[in-house]
Automatic annotation (TrEMBL):
Residues 1-23 form the signal peptide. This is Serine aminopeptidase S33 domain-containing protein. Pfam families: Hydrolase_4. InterPro entries: AB_hydrolase_Est10 (IPR053145), AB_hydrolase_fold (IPR029058), Hydrolase_4 (IPR022742). The keyword tRNA-binding does not apply. Coiled coil: none annotated. It comes from Pseudoxanthomonas suwonensis (strain 11-1).
Amino acid sequence: MKRISPQWILLAMLLAWAMSAAAAEGDCRTGSWRLQDGRVLDIAPGAEGQLRWRLPDGRTGALTRTAEGGWASTLGWTGRADGHAVAFDGCRGVRFDGINGTRLPLQQVDTRFQASGVELAGRLTMPPGDGQVPVVVLVHGAEHHSALQAYSLQREFAAAGIGVFAYDKRGTGASEGRYTQDYLTLAVDAIHAMREARRLAGDRAARIGYQGGSQGGWVAPLAARIVPVDFVVVSFGLAVSPLEEDREAIAADIARAGFDADALAGAMEIADATATLIDSGFTDGYEELAAVKAKHGGAPWYPVVRGNFTGYLLASDEATIRRDAPGLVRGVPAHYDPMPVLETLDVPQLWLLGGEDRDAPPGETLRRLAALQHAGRPITTAVFPKAEHGMYEFEVDPQGERLSTRQPDGYLRLMVDFIHGRALQPAYGDAVPATTP
């Protein structure tokens, strides 16, 4: 039997302290709970005054207190009742749809570590026990909120036998520094996070790698190219540049609405104008943007142009763009080409894409990844056909807006199998993994 190291005795003490502190603050409901039927229920903070439950099959709901002291659920993010109910027994137990559950004794330790000139806040979450496990570092997308507060994957992976290191990116949450979207800076920060995760996990760390969502799909492979790791998981990320992403998203907007090649040509004129504005750092290009808005503003296809950057720029006046836009995209290398990194990256990669992703359409990325697969790069791809950005399935409301309902069945399970290094199944829900020949 493996000897328990003094480091893990200390971690267990810290965990007990953290749980008692959480109980005192009234937030001890957050955590992973093992239900009597074997399922794991994750409870996370939700919108103000709410909690959120998740199951490993992707189902989720928002929880709101009832007059009787329990919690009633609404489907995904729709606000529509789904019939599920949750009750808590203080910090000791949970009851989900009449099934009792007890807290999983995950081992957590908070830390502060030095990155590139700033100190970042992180947290290692380990599965129960003292055996070796793979460890994954969660790499941010472009969000401004705290990963330590918001990332449920830090518990969902740990409940599936994977160590997880989450951290607040610079300029967010409890971390120092100025917010940036400069990929090289963020990749070096991720490398420091990986080293801190390895240090804290000690002898328990086996395989170690990254999982990056959205913008993290540019950052995580770059970090792995600088300092190799054992694996990279990219969720709803891209193998094209940010400006190419915007153009591809606009083209998909036009095609989805059923407009013709003339409409696409006009929409690309708009994309050219917004690219000029972005390239200048929002100092030049306002006249060009005003000109294409005047030229095409009355076209029947104009209202469907959304893209990525472009939708915001079309909807905002010049004063608003000058004031707000530089902060929203601070540091973004708009012409960043990820292919030189991917063409030379020998780290096994899993790319998970949404077939209905409007923000990051997967078409060109899948073509490029297929070419890399045929060139022998160790890449596996899987498309969840009904998922949009963030890997969420959705319904459409009467106004045509998408309302997220859940994550796809198989999404978490596929990541877990890949991170563990297991042989992949033929299918995960609606997704079929495609591997390098």
